[in-house]
Amino acid sequence: DSNSILLGAREFANYLRTLIKEYNLDSLVSVLETVAIGAYDGVVMHVLPDDVYYVVKSKEHVKKIVEEHLLKGRQVWDLTVDKSKLKPGEKFQVKEYRIVTRNIGVIDPKNIEEYIARDGYFALSKALQMKPEEIINEIKASGLRGRGGAGFPTGLKWEFTAKAQSDQKYIVCNADEGEPGTFKDRLIMEGDPHSIIEAMIIAGYAVGATKGYIYIRGEYYNSVENLRKAIKDAYEYGFLGENILGSGFNFDLTVRLGAGAYVCGEETALLESIEGKAGRPRLKPPYPPQVGLFGKPTVINNVETLANVPQIILNGAEWFRSIGTPNSPGTKVFCLVGDVNRRGMVELPMGVTVREVLYGFGGGIKGGRELKMVQTGGLAGTFIGPDKLDTPLDYDSMKNYGVSLGSGVILAIDDTHCAVDIALNVMEFFRHESCGKCTPCREGTKVACDILEKMTKFQGTEEDLKYLEQIAYVTADSSFCGLGQSINVPLLSLINNFREEFEAHIKDKI
Ligand code: SF4
Predict the structure, then answer these.
(1) With a 6 A CB cut-off, is 479 part of the ligand 1 pocket?
(2) Which of 112, 138, 257, 433 lies 20 to 30 Å from 323 when distance is taken between CA atoms?
(3) Whether residue 445 has its Cβ less than 6 Å from ligand 1
(4) Rounded to whole angstroms, how far apart are CA atoms 129 and 127?
(5) Is the CB of residue 262 below 6 angstroms from any atom belonging to ligand 1?
């Protein structure tokens, strides 16, 4: 994946191939490039069939593994990774459950046959023998909800689109992952692109759409490369195009690149962008299942949501419901970032607690420091103190505990950070990403930044703090789209949980 490539993965792989040749091992050993499995602090090398994981940081490490392990069969202990870090299950405090990440780190994402060997396109074959309404009922019965943050029931979205009358319908994959700290969609696209393609074809068949678009962040070079290769191969193998698997159903798929605007993750701004217009949100209603891309009924699903679909079709709704919680079935892919010992991506059953992710997967706070706060759900999510670590993460956590699930980011912050600095950092992001279409968001984020900047210099007043809170409410109430409507969540949760810290920045009180 991109991160491993930055850490030298390609250089190490090429060196590995050279050494294998030099030592005449090429008839015995083959090198397969796959995607990092989500929990790592270097380039991971997995030696099979011995099932040994190494973290490689230099060419010397590669040489050592070849000379010791491959030639002499001796494990290089100082480079071996504690397996519990990479293959959770036995010694791990939280048990990983891989549905959407099941192929990541296992298959070569650029080889369609490896995907097929792991039951790839079997769900499509099964779906094409079902009636479209049976597929929709299965997805509805599974309880699958949108993993992009909103949590809308996927089956219902499909049903609304299926019922809409039109000569043309579309399936759009929202792969514009722009939430700071989130990288799960990137790893899914880089590591298992066919699962998204397969899901989109199934969705197209279910709702009567014959054309799909994957709208992806332009900066995600490797995801784009892998998806384009996967689409090309899917056409060659007859999974895309005309008369798919002899069913008479046609479906075409195209990749469209975004240009790095956070607001284009908002579904209607995304549609505008695909249509070639400036990426600004539309007025809702009408909603995309009625009036979507080019004015036609459209299903928009997030990458992670789609990656669940083939497994639900293959294993059934009941199986899916047996994982997670009754109201939030299935798993969630979390991205753990910030001041923890182990950062990375992990897929866990819905309902896992913040503490389990932080300590079970993340190995606790870096350097043995104190945890000060955690932000869940992305930059528009809530900041919580250590007293709320036992909150279960699912679609009810906001309603029951005031804790966001959002896109699944968990940001740990230790006691070296100041709440006012964090608030300024968050608001600067929203000020930068505000599309400028409506006044409350455009001006509100700017004024909030001005006040917070004053406070970081210990120049704020009590009125400033009151005004900051008012701005949070007014912007949330009167902004046009979800971006402006959600800035109150991080801002007010920071002020409410760390008020004394904000007050300590007021000049009259110093
Ligand atoms: Fe644009 Fe912000 Fe208004 Fe949304 S809320 S339309 S991002 S200015």
Answers:
(1) yes
(2) 112
(3) no
(4) 5
(5) no
Q: Report helix, strand or coil for 251.
A: strand
Structure confidence by residue, pLDDT tens digits, 179-231 = 888 899 999 999 999 999 999 999 999 999 999 999 999 999 999 999 999 99
484 lines ligand 1 (CB under 6 A): yes
- Substitution site in 280, 447, 471, 479 for ligand 1 pocket (most atoms within 8 Å of beta carbon): 479
Q: From the CA of 147, how far away is ligand 1's center (Å)?
A: 22
> Which residue intervals of the chain bear CATH 3.40.50.11540?
112-321
- Ligand 1 within 6 A of 265 CB? no
Q: What is the pLDDT of residues 129-176, one digit of tens each?
A: 999 999 999 999 999 999 988 889 999 999 999 999 999 999 999 999
41-95 pLDDT, tens digit each: 678 888 988 888 888 899 999 999 999 999 998 888 877 765 444 443 333 456 7
**CB of 17 sitting under 6 A from ligand 1:** no
List the structure tokens of 179: 């939430």
Q: Is 263 in the pocket of ligand 1 (CB under 6 A)?
A: yes
Rg (CA), the chain: 24
Rounded to whole angstroms, the maximal C-alpha distance in the chain is 77
CATH tag for 2-86 (out of 3.90.550.60, 3.40.30.10, 3.40.800.20, 3.10.20.310): 3.40.30.10
Topology (CATH level 3) of domain 419-509: de novo design (two linked rop proteins) (1.20.1440)
Hey, what are 364's tokens? 């606790």
The beta-strand segments (E) located in 363-486 are 371-376, 383-384, 409-414
CATH number of 331-414: 3.10.20.600
The residue to which tokens 């384009």 are assigned:
228
Pocket test for ligand 1, best of 176, 434, 475, 477 (most atoms within 8 A of CB): 434
Overall fold of domain 112-321: Rossmann fold (3.40.50)
Could you tell me if the CB of 436 is within 6 A of ligand 1?
yes
* Residue 144 beta carbon below 6 angstroms from any ligand 1 atom: no
What pLDDT does 82 receive? 56
Q: How many residues does the chain have?
A: 510
Pairing of strands 211-217, 383-384: unpaired
